[in-house]
């Protein structure tokens, strides 16, 4: 652990000097407008602390969202989010990457609202070549409405890793050799949104949004992007193999990270498509790469 901390410290020094760098120890606080722009309903986004913190507002008129200015092929993307407090049933707060075509690739965090006192559900999903249906759901081990927590994606040629506060909660390995498409040649934008989905979000749509509790508010800061920026038509990244997230140590989880992932699975996972034999009688090919399946 000490050696990893030292490596990260050296990475910050290299970053300052302009060299290819190891990841920062925590997401960098930068103004919202440096990398992102509102997507719709601009009046439902509120700005604080010089634009380094924003709030998305949802009412019975509209939700809102934002997207990155650039598109990216691989990288590390992180956001600190404080979710809608109180009765948030029917609402969805989303943070995801998505390409711009019909056979799209997508990497999703979706936070499904709850009735007061019930736990939030974090749903993740991965689309490749327009195919999704790879949902996993967990309860979080903290109250995500009480303070900010970091939600991150590491994406390279070898794996996609979802992190919550640096704890891996999901890994999607590159299984092209098993006939499974992997996102590698379609640049993605980063998006976030707050919207009403009470037809499915809470208890399968049984719990509806209580608009008397509106506006519903999700808060964001630390709009961190460390990726290879590319045009929408790009098929490769010209820095491939040179950035920290391309290096050998990031081609797989280390032993400590695998133990943390198993902890999440054993204590907090409530649904995993890989183990749903009713929905998928035959084990999906990519699940064969999972150490715990």
TrEMBL record:
Residues forming the catalytic site: 106 (nucleophile), 110 (proton donor)
Record PTM: Contains at least one intrachain disulfide bond essential for its enzymatic activity.
GO biological process: cell wall biogenesis; cell wall organization; xyloglucan metabolic process
Alphabetized InterPro entries for the sequence: Beta-glucanase-like (IPR000757), Beta-glucanase/XTH (IPR044791), ConA-like_dom_sf (IPR013320), GH16_AS (IPR008263), XET_C (IPR010713), XTH (IPR016455)
Enzyme Commission code(s) on record: 2.4.1.207
The name this protein goes by in its record: Xyloglucan endotransglucosylase/hydrolase
Location(s) in or outside the cell: Secreted, Cell wall; Secreted, Extracellular space, Apoplast
GH16 domain location: 23-220
Organism: Rubroshorea parvifolia
Keywords in alphabetical order: Apoplast, Cell wall, Cell wall biogenesis/degradation, Disulfide bond, Glycoprotein, Glycosidase, Hydrolase, Secreted, Signal, Transferase
Family named by the database record: Belongs to the glycosyl hydrolase 16 family.
Predominant place of localization: secreted
PANTHER family tied to this protein: XYLOGLUCAN ENDOTRANSGLUCOSYLASE/HYDROLASE PROTEIN 8-RELATED
Glycosylation sites: 114
Signal peptide: 1-21
A GO cellular component annotation in the UniProt record: apoplast
């Amino acid at each position: 652990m000490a050696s990893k901390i030292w490596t990260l410290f050296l990475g910050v020094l290299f970053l300052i000097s302009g060299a290819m760098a190891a990841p920062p120890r925590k997401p960098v606080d930068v103004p919202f407008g440096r990398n992102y722009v509102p997507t719709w309903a601009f009046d439902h986004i509120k700005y604080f602390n010089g634009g380094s913190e924003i709030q998305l507002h949802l009412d019975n008129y509209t939700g809102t969202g934002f997207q990155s200015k650039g598109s990216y092929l691989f990288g590390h993307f992180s956001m600190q989010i404080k979710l809608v407090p109180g009765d948030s049933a029917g609402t969805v707060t989303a943070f995801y990457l998505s390409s711009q075509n019909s056979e799209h690739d997508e990497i999703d965090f979706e936070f499904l609202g709850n009735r007061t006192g019930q736990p939030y559900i974090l749903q993740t999903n991965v689309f490749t070549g327009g195919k999704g249906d790879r949902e996993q759901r967990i309860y979080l081990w903290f109250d995500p409405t009480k303070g900010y927590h970091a939600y991150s994606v590491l994406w390279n040629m070898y794996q996609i890793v979802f992190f919550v506060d640096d704890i891996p909660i999901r890994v999607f390995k590159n299984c092209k050799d098993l006939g499974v498409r992997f996102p590698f040649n379609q640049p993605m934008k980063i998006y976030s949104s707050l919207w009403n989905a009470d037809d499915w979000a809470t208890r399968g749509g049984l719990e509806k949004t209580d608009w008397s509790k509106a506006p519903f508010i999700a808060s964001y800061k630390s709009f961190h992007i460390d990726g290879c920026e590319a045009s929408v038509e790009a098929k490769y990244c010209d820095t491939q193999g040179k950035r920290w997230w391309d290096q050998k140590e990031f081609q797989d989880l280390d032993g400590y990270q695998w133990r943390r992932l198993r902890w999440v699975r054993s204590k907090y996972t409530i649904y995993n498509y890989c183990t749903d034999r009713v929905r998928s009688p035959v084990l999906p090919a990519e699940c064969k790469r999972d150490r715990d399946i």
